Write the structure tokens for this entry.
Amino acid sequence: MAIMEISVVPVGTDNPSISHYVAECVAIVKEKGLPYELTSMGTNVEGELRDLLWIAEKMHQLPFKRGAQRVLTSIKLDDRRDKQLSIGGKKEAVEKRL
């Protein structure tokens, strides 16, 4: 299992608000049925690497389909092989040390 943090920002739209794009991108994750967490600056998704990369491409393409002229997508991947990863587990590990 891996965890991906993704942020998709459409540029060249007629409105500075992007919440409707974000909602549609999150809907892609929900349809795939993977665990996710929406944050104020991106979305964390948990799953197999191939599924995460598939989701990243779909999320990146969506604003173009909605008329955006440019899309900036930032992706971080955490793919740990020595133990199981989860979004909650990563947060708990840090909170224990606080």
Remarks:
- The chain has a mean pLDDT of 95.
